[in-house]
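Whiteboard transcription, Tuesday session. T.W. wrote the structure tokens on the left side:
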């Protein structure tokens, strides 16, 4: 991928739905949208029916009238969408907030497998790690508010694009201008951000994961600037059952689908099919 080619700003989409085969749900992180999954979804669609919805309160997703955005209420909405699709269970891959929602859905018995990529929610309540997570997210509230006043200018601003690429990825040159435009537009259209930030401070965080029966693969990134793996990955590494896969991505940032979609598609597909083949052999 080249980071120099110009492309028109994308439009918000309520969901990506493509391919055929194993049902696979892809969940994006806070401030993002289904666009962050586009390239990965296209690769996975060769062997899976892929559904990547816009989470409530995010660009392309529904706004909740009461403004009560949390991992649980977002999971409620996604669960209703799964019911509409006729998917009693499915494979789930979630990034950041999407990973947190993925764990919530796994608790509800909706996940055949779960791939959690740089998942959020891995802090104790209360804890220093929890406060650091909120401190990372909170400044985005006034920043995105100020940028919204500038109309479309931030989308075309080289500095804003660089900041977003630097925040979310390690190899910034691997991210196209079109993808960065989608990231910026999504960040500017996220009414859920204040409630999710407050929820990070109030808790609760993820429930104890030691008794999860869903096959889990947790993927952490060594260059994650949003939820550094050394602090935010600790609970996942320690608490998940021994059967869970634990992978550390080298030279990757918080949203690795943007910089290396093929690598992430392969890791998701590998987990899906290894778990399926294991169940057949039992």
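and on the right, the sequence the group agreed on:
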């Amino acid at each position: 991928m080249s980071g120099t080619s110009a492309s028109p700003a994308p439009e918000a989409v309520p969901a990506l739905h493509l391919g055929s085969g194993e049902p696979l749900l892809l969940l994006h992180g806070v401030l993002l949208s289904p666009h962050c999954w586009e390239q990965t979804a296209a690769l996975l669609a060769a062997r899976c029916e892929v559904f990547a919805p816009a989470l409530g309160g995010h660009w392309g997703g529904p706004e909740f009238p009461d403004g009560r955005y949390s991992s649980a209420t977002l999971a409620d909405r996604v669960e209703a969408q799964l019911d509409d699709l006729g998917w009693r269970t499915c494979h789930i891959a979630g990034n950041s907030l999407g990973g947190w929602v993925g764990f919530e859905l796994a608790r509800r018995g909706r996940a055949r497998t779960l791939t959690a990529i740089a998942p959020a929610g891995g802090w104790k309540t209360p804890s220093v790690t929890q406060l650091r997570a909120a401190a990372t997210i909170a400044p985005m509230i006034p920043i995105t508010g100020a940028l919204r006043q500038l109309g479309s200018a931030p989308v075309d601003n080289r500095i804003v694009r660089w900041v977003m690429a630097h925040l979310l990825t390690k190899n910034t040159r691997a991210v196209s201008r079109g993808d960065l435009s989608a990231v910026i537009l999504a960040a500017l259209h996220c009414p859920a951000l204040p409630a999710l930030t407050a929820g990070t401070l109030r808790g609760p965080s993820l429930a104890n994961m030691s008794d999860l029966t869903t096959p889990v693969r947790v993927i952490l990134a060594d260059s994650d600037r949003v939820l550094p793996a050394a602090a935010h990955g600790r609970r996942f590494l320690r608490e998940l059952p021994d059967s869970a896969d634990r992978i550390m991505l080298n030279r990757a940032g918080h949203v690795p689908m943007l910089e290396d979609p093929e690598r992430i598609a392969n890791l998701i597909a590998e987990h899906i099919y290894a778990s399926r083949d294991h169940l057949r052999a039992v």
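Someone added at the bottom: Confidence is low (pLDDT under 50) at residues 1-5.
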